[in-house]
Amino acid sequence: CVLCGRTDNCPEKYGEKRTYVEYNLTVHYYCLLMSSGIWQRGEEDEGVDGFLITDIRKEVNRASKLTCNICKKKGASIGCVAPKCKRSYHFPCGLQRECIFQFMEDFRSYCWEHKPVQQFTDKEPRGSSQCTICLDLVDHLPVYSVLKSPCCKNAWFHRECLQYQALSAGIFFFRCTVCNNKDKFQEEMLRMGIHIPEKDASWELEENAYQDLLHCYQHCDVKRCLCKKGRDYNEPDSKWEIKRCQYCGSRGTHLACSSMKSWEQNWDCMECRSIFAKSGKYRKRKRCSLATSEKTNGTNSLLEEPSPKSPRQSSGSPRNFLLQSPKITCQNLSPCSHLASNRVTMSLSPVVSNRIWSLTQKCLREQRREVHNILKELKVQVKTKPTRLNINAENIWSSALKGFRQRNFSPTNTIEVSFSNCKIKSKTNTSGSKHHFFQLLMHHLQNSSLFEGSSGKNLSLDFQAVKENLYFEAGKMIAVSLVHGGPSPGFFSKVLFDCLVYGPENVKPALEDVADVDIAQTIKTIKYANSLSSLQSALQDCGEFLAAAGCLRPVTALCDKNMLVNDILIYHVIKRTILPLESFRQGLKTLGVLEKMQMHPDAFSSILCHNPERLSAEIICDLFTIHSSSDVNKVKGVDFWMGYLQDVESGESVVTLEDILLFVTGSCYIPSIGFDPEPTIKFLHMKYPIGNRLLNRLELPITKTYQQFKNKMELTIRNTLRVERE
């Protein structure tokens, strides 16, 4: 780009990168829009969207004499519009330094010191809430990366999410995702630097995007179709016209096949009837139908049992009906029983629920402390001899796989990580980089094709991965991560964990362990069949699947379905994935991790089947050992330190507890094995705090007032981490 000097082609951040061969000119669209010394003097089809080529040359010449206040290089074409402010910068540099660019009116730019900010009152709720675009948590903090809605009190967004939403929706459809306000919302977002392009929404521009909505279901699903021309035949205004289910619309019948004399009569498919019947709502709904529909009551025997389809979210669905059953009680419930199982949902009073939750968390903490000591025993095997891994953060899996398979790699060597890619200069940090590498690696594994499921994951069946021995490598990586200071995976299902520890022959899976929606629906159809005829019909529909699973057998009684469902679950969840499971087990044997899992199953379940506990002021306080030159300084300093942690936890700070941990140790999480050396705090007569990552030591200044202490902590931690990110 002739204005910023960068080669990056990132339309979301810098606008479209355009090259004009005839003018020997390449420019980012946003760099051009925001440049201070150029205006659109031509028509839209002249030059670059109205910017004349001669004007662009003049602007490049003007900018070549200005130095960027951020990167210290020439070519700073954008200036802050605040009176008496002489700061200039490139557009990408301004983004990195959190400047505000207003894509409206005069296309103004504000530097990091004079930029507009959103007003936060004392009554604003602290803590965090869900960003309604990405559904991840967003902290309620007055920072650049967070924006609050001007029209909804409790709507908070990530800036990046809003920008992507605006680019996709365009000026006609970009609005508050909570209340749908458009004018007030767009005005505030433009003021805060969100670019809203003047175009139609991306989904409106896609050709035939809504073609599927024009398709009407036309198929007769009753068990015995009477139409000689086939189930798909549909003749309007006759007895062979197809009528769809009044509730789901995804099942149909010929009028004659269900003894319906007119189109005015309503018809319900068998699946919807069973759902309403189990929820006790069918009679009520039936009364709401037209009186003529009562004549269809005698056609139940003609209705075909529905084929498997996607499960519906309904208060009367089979699963919810099961969970609401009075047979499910709180018998033998102890805080540590079945910690890794999330299958039973019970309605408990808030007091009882909170008590159980707190007891469970306490038990988990004790078990994690036990794991901490076990992993320390395993780490004795690790030698000081280093093994260097060159990692590309943008392709974490391939580079990690290459590193683990290199000839000189040994899990007993000390691992050093060097990050390198096209955007980041190579950097080596034996603590921070290693922590970051294992965090990225565990996140990739959790979302990879090697596992399936939503929260608690089981192994999937990927033949290519089996052929390339990737399940073994995944197990090996998890074992190495645990012993070398990586994060706990936390995504294993109870079934996967039990298979690893007790053996697959001793594990009984449940319906929740089936990730495939179609197969889950097939099992549900069999499980909830309420008559022998409906069960046999369901088995006939899925005969090929049952034959492939080795579960096809004669059924003579309704109770046979329980054993059949159990066999299907064992096949699909366990037997089908026996090869990946064995390979994964072999990988976990690295450094003796699997053996320790089998010896201490409850302890390892706390880190493999549960997400890490969220950082709190109490956890951070317990993590650090405090030293001081005098008892007086120690008492006063501890008070300030504890008060600051409380402020950070309650959201009354621009930094987070993760930022504090990252500042001191280079890691934003507490490894399962803990830190080595253990983190310490020292109070000294110094100007600003220092995070010594080599020693995991936080050196804090001795101040007269708490406000001085807080200001110094905020300034140092925020600026240090920002510089590292840049």
TrEMBL record:
It is found in: Nucleus. Residues 297-319 are annotated as: Disordered. One of its GO terms (molecular function) is ubiquitin-protein transferase activity. InterPro entries: EPHD, HECT_dom, Hect_E3_ubiquitin_ligase, PHD-type_Zinc_Finger, PHD_PHF7/G2E3-like, PHF7/G2E3_ePHD, Znf_FYVE_PHD, Znf_PHD. Keywords: Ligase, Metal-binding, Nucleus, Transferase, Ubl conjugation pathway, Zinc, Zinc-finger. Its main location: nucleus. CDD domains: ePHD_PHF7_G2E3_like (cd15669), PHD_PHF7_G2E3_like (cd15496). Residues 1-115 form the PHD-type domain. Transmembrane segments: none annotated. This is G2E3 ligase. It comes from Malurus elegans (Red-winged fairywren).
